[in-house]
Design a protein that fits this description.
The protein folds into 2 domains: about 160 residues, Rossmann fold (3-Layer(aba) Sandwich); about 120 residues, Hypothetical Protein, Haloacid Dehalogenase-like Hydrolase, Chain: A, domain 2, CATH 3.30.1240.10. The protein contains 11 helices and 14 strands. A hairpin with a 7-residue loop joins strand 10 and strand 11. It is globular, with a radius of gyration of 18 Å.
C-alpha cells in the first residue's frame, strides 16, 4: 500500500455497525467500498463472525488487509483464508470450561482449528436459540460444521471459542462464575443478545490472548503502524478494547451505552450506512 493509504488504518465491526439490521451491506455502501478499496483505502473488518460468514456478506470486496475474525481469535488473509495468527486455549483450560459449562447444564458450540482448517463442533441443539444458530450455519452450508457424540472429542484440536446459547438469566451465573474464578487473566468473555434471534443470548468465551484489540495490535505491528493511526468503529461491549486502542474510536448511534462512553466520537446509526459515509468523507477530504 502507498504511504498515503497508511496515514490511517480503518477497522470496523460488522453486525450493528457496518451492516444494517438485517445483516446485509446496502448496495450503495458495497459500491462505495469497492471504489475506496480500489483507490487504496486501508480498510478491513473486526468481527465475531468466521471468515466463511464474512465472505458470505462481503463477497468479492478487495480486502487486502487481514480480517480480524472470531473476536480476535484469528487474524486471517481474506482471499486465501490462511490464518496469520491463532489465539486459542491451553488444553487444560478448555477442558475446565467444558466441565464448568456441563455443571450448569450448558452445551457449547466449539470453534477450533485442526492445523489445516477451521472447525465448528456441536453435539445437539437443546433450545430455540441454539437451533437458530445451527440452522443458520446449515443454510449457509458452513463447511466447518461437524457433529460430535461428546464435546470432549473436540479437545484434540486447538479450541479458540466456546459459544453458550440460552436465555440471559440462564447464562449469567456461568458468566459470573468464570469471571470470578478465572477472570481477565485467562479469559475474554462477552454476554450479548443475538439481534437476529431476539430473546436468546450468547456467552462467547475466548482465551485472554484473543480479543479484537489484541488482533488489531498484531495487525498494526505487522504494518509498521502506530495505534494513533487506527480509526475503529463499533457498537457493542466486545468493541470497547478496540476503540480504546485506536487513535480515533467511533461508535454508531445505536451502540450500547458503555461503548459510546468509551468512544471519541458518535456518528449516525448502522441503518444510515454511517460507517461508509464516514469513510467517504475522510478519504475524499484528504
Amino acid at each position: 500500500m502507498s504511504a498515503r493509504a497508511l496515514e490511517h488504518i480503518y477497522l470496523t465491526d460488522m453486525d450493528g455497525t457496518l451492516l444494517r439490521g438485517d445483516g446485509t451491506l446496502a448496495p450503495g455502501s458495497r459500491r462505495a467500498l469497492q471504489t475506496l478499496l480500489t483507490e487504496g483505502l486501508a480498510f478491513t473488518v473486526a468481527t465475531a463472525r468466521s471468515i466463511a460468514s464474512i465472505r458470505q456478506v462481503l463477497g468479492d470486496l478487495p480486502l487486502r488487509l487481514p480480517v480480524v475474525e472470531s473476536n480476535g481469535a484469528f487474524l486471517t488473509d481474506y482471499a486465501s483464508g490462511r490464518h496469520e495468527a491463532v489465539h486459542g486455549f491451553a488444553s487444560s483450560l478448555a477442558e475446565e470450561l467444558l466441565v464448568r459449562g456441563r455443571r450448569r447444564g450448558q452445551i457449547p458450540f466449539l470453534v477450533a482449528f485442526d492445523g489445516s482448517r477451521d472447525r465448528l463442533f456441536y453435539t445437539k441443539a437443546v433450545n430455540p436459540g441454539m437451533d437458530w444458530y445451527l440452522q443458520d450455519r446449515l443454510k449457509a452450508a458452513d463447511r466447518r460444521l461437524s457433529r460430535l457424540k461428546r464435546p470432549e472429542q473436540a479437545l484434540r484440536h486447538q479450541l479458540v471459542c466456546f459459544i453458550f446459547i440460552d436465555r440471559r438469566e440462564a447464562l449469567t451465573g456461568l458468566e459470573e462464575e468464570l469471571r470470578r474464578d478465572l477472570g481477565e487473566q485467562l479469559l475474554e468473555l462477552y454476554l450479548m443478545e443475538n439481534s437476529y434471534s431476539p430473546g436468546w443470548c450468547w456467552l462467547t468465551v475466548y482465551d485472554s490472548s484473543a480479543g479484537k484489540h489484541n488482533a488489531a495490535a498484531h495487525l498494526l505491528e505487522r504494518l509498521g503502524c502506530e495505534a494513533e493511526q487506527l480509526v475503529a468503529f463499533g457498537d457493542q461491549e466486545n468493541d470497547i478494547g478496540l476503540l480504546r486502542l485506536a487513535g480515533q474510536g467511533i461508535a454508531v448511534s445505536n451502540a450500547a451505552p458503555g461503548l459510546k462512553a468509551a468512544a471519541d466520537q458518535v456518528i449516525g446509526s448502522n441503518e444510515e450506512d454511517s460507517v461508509v459515509r464516514y469513510l467517504l468523507n475522510a478519504w475524499r477530504g484528504r
